[in-house]
Amino acid sequence: MVQITGTDPDGDAVGRPADWQRSAGPAPMVLMQPERPGTPALAPGERVLARLTPIGPGRYEGRTLRRIDAAPGRILGVFRRGRDNRIEPTDRRSKAEWIVPPGQDAGAQADEIVLAEPLARQQHLGLKPARVLQRLGKLGDARSISLIAIHSHDIPQAFSDAALDEAKRARAVRLGSRTDLREVPLITIDGADARDFDDAVFAEPDPDTAGGFRLLVAIADVAHYVKPASALDVSAAARGNSVYFPDRVVQMLPEELSNGWCSLRPKQDRGCLFVEMRIDRGGRKIGHRFGRGLMRSAARMTYEQVQAAANEGRDSGPPLVHLYAAYRALLGARMQRGTLDLDLPERAVVLDDQGRVASVAPRPRLDSHRLIEEFMVLANVAAAEQLEALHMPCMYRVHAPPSDDKLDSLRGFLATLGISLPAGNQLHPGDFDRVLRRYAGTAESQLISEVMLRSQSQAAYSLDNIGHFGLALPRYAHFTSPIRRYADLLVHRALIRGLRLGRDGLSDDQVAEFAELGDRITATERRAQQAERDAIDRYLAAFMSGRIGGHFAARISGVTRFGLFVTVTETGATGIVPFASLPDDYWQYDERQQTLTGRRTQQVFRLAEEVEVLLSEANPVTGGMVFHVLGAGSGGAGGGKPRSGRAPGQTRAKANPPGAAVGSGAPGSGKRGSGKRGSGKRSAGW
After folding, report:
1. What is the DSSP letter of 258?
2. End-to-end distance of the chain based on CA atoms, in angstroms?
3. DSSP alpha helices (H): ranges in 456-552?
4. Are 120 and 131 in contact (CB under 8 A)?
5. pLDDT tens digits for 463-502?
6. Residues 618 and 634: beta-carbon distance below 8 Å
7. Secondary structure class of 426 (helix, strand, coil)
8. What are phi and psi of 87, to 5 degrees?
9. Which of 506, 508, 515 is nearest to 462 (CA)?
10. How far apart (Å, rounded) are the C-alpha atoms in residues 105 and 113?
């Protein structure tokens, strides 16, 4: 089965195997033959059963046998009005425009973003025709960039009338049989712009454990409002999670719940699920209990407020002193456990009132962020342990160790630096962390972090527990953010059912489909991550489009057979340096060492190397950027000037093969998710 991903320069469809596993290496490219006369053209997003014929290394010719999708594919693009009206696709993998015949433009205006469908082609020559189905707004409007990402990835935006009615009928939780926590000074700690407060924390010394602490983590009781099989539940399951863009959030739940009854607002009674945990002086958990309660947040604080209070040595109302003391104990336990902490820099895109990029600033990483992260990790561990003890199904958050192939590649690379790792069956995340700490602050630090990141597996949701490699935990589940993650809601329901805390626990139907649910919410999470990355790419391309011709300090963030990827130090904008712009040489690609080496000049471009680049193209529609390297790579002769044309001998390693990703997002860069956006709750990415 072939998934159509774009078009080549002639307008013919390009695809890849639909179920290709990334661990198997780069997916082969499938160049599809034109469809039969009178049949609509293939469009990005469609799947077809095809007969494949090899036409070269990693390349196949495909002929459609049967279309899998009942509905025709969709084209998202910018409407360009002229003598021949056209649609410029927003997907950078689509190389050709589409022509809009007279009467098929639905009244679209110039430079509007439109959703279209392909039409049957009457002749083989010229651009393929398409019909405009929906007008989505003007390119350049404040909402346009995130709208492109939302529609490109089919992220649901509108709630059903039934779901909205259920949300509007929601009312305050009453005490009843719940534990009354309203006198406990729980506080929420979130980003300054957060509106959904789904967790609150409290700590005090444990009188029964010398040097130990009693911790309380209270989480919004979403399960009280979102019942299994309800309209709200169906909608939340389809979304899987909230999706965060610089200008908006596509919430998993309607605003009446996400920012209202399920948000732990200060001085207001709110239902919660809570876990009370006891730790010893070394930060090891020695006991826990779960319950359903009614709480009243004593204060809503930001990370910056909490950090400022800690730095000044003052207790700003709530008992921050005990929270920080407990955090230091938990941090000590984490370090002793040995976790993989790839604390790579993150940047926040800040928009002005018109929706334009005002700045791209580093996202701060404070101790107050780490404090909340440690409390949430401990609560998540307790949830997984509790469900195992109850013999209830658990939606585990699993993270597999690196695959054998990736480990072999990583070992080979580290060997070039004189670094060795233990044998595969003895490997521990602490081994990675020791290497990172040993080289922290050195010239090799960034390079080692980048390569180590690329060796890691992606975290996922699963009924079957394989442990969490990155956090060095034998069992782990997401419990702390049910407002924005469906996985957490499932864990809440399992706890409610197992502990007999109400009638709104996990249903028999959901128990039966738990494994399938894990696959589905893993897919929606990855869809959201890709949409968020695509939006950031387009915002950065828009920001950089006014600086074409400028020179920038950058770092090589990807080395491939068809060129380099570079990331600008100032903004984090990433783009391609095509082979054709490199100095005239025969370039040899070394996958193990992540280098391109000129056979004649012995010039070397290597991953994480600092370079000076010139920006030659920036396309806000696709998010693609093209750079030229000005400064020379290490070793050999100077870099020379960018030139046009292909370097001699490159016929065996073609620059920019059809369908290659041109622009931001270096292959394999997959940065881990940052959890609640701007919150520092980065454990959610694990």
Report:
1. I
2. 31
3. 486-499, 508-512, 514-544
4. no
5. 999 999 999 999 999 999 999 999 999 999 999 999 999 9
6. no
7. helix
8. -120, 125
9. 515
10. 12
Q: Is 388 helix (H, G, I), strand (E, B) or coil?
A: helix
Could you give the CA distance from residue 360 to residue 536 in angstroms, rounded to a whole number?
A: 10
HSE-CB for 240 with a 13 A CA cutoff = 20
Strand partners for 59 = 29, 56
The Cα-based distances of 304 to 323, 364, 632 in angstroms read 15, 10, 42
Q: Are 529 and 516 in contact (CB under 8 A)?
A: no
Q: What is the pLDDT of residues 325-382, one digit of tens each?
A: 999 999 999 999 989 887 666 788 888 888 888 888 888 889 999 999 999 999 999 9
Structure tokens that stand for 549 in this block: 């011709």
The pLDDT value given to residue 21: 64
- Residues 553, 679: Cα–Cα separation, whole Å: 29
Residue in 627, 617, 592 with CA at minimum distance from that of residue 607: 592
What is the rounded distance in angstroms from the CA atom of residue 358 to the CA atom of residue 247? 12
What are the structure tokens assigned to 17, written together? 């195997």
Phi, psi of 89 (to 5 degrees): -60, 145
Q: Half-sphere exposure (CA, 13 Å, Cβ side) for 127?
A: 17
Q: Which two tokens stand for residue 120?
A: 């049957």
* Residue 553, C-beta contacts closer than 8 angstroms, at least 6 positions apart: 568, 569, 570, 610, 612
pLDDT in tens, 155-186: 998 999 999 999 999 999 999 999 999 999 99
Residue 221 is encoded by which pair of tokens?
């009781």
Task: Report d(CA 616, CA 625) in Å as an integer.
Answer: 8
**What average pLDDT does the segment 105-118 reach?**
91
Residue 127 pLDDT > 90, yes or no?
A: no
Name the amino acid, one letter, at 101. Answer: P
Taking the C-alpha atoms of residue 477 and residue 500, their distance in angstroms, rounded to an integer, is 20
Question: Tokens standing for 496?
Answer: 């409610």
The residue among 449, 451, 452, 470 whose CA lies nearest residue 460 is: 470
**How do residues 534-573 score in pLDDT, each as one tens digit?**
999 989 998 999 899 999 999 898 888 888 999 998 888 9
- Give buried/exposed letters for 356-367 (b at 16+ CB in 10 A, else e): ebeebeeeeebb
- Cα angle: 224, vertex 373, 377; to 5 degrees: 65
Rounded to the nearest angstrom, the gap between the alpha carbon of residue 276 and the centroid of all alpha carbons in its chain is 31
Strand, helix or coil for residue 382: helix
Helix (H) or strand (E) holding 16: strand 13-17
> Strand, coil or helix: what is 166?
helix
Q: pLDDT tier at 275 (50, 70, 90 boundaries)?
A: very high
User: Is 555 within 8 Å of 610 (Cβ atoms)?
Assistant: yes
> Which is nearest to 369 in space by CA: 652, 678, 129, 98?
678
CA atoms within 13 A on the CB side of 685: 22
Q: Which of 10, 192, 620 is nearest to 32 (CA)?
A: 10
For 465-491, give one letter per residue: b (16+ CB within 10 A) or e: bebbbbbbbebbbbbbbbbbbbbbbbb
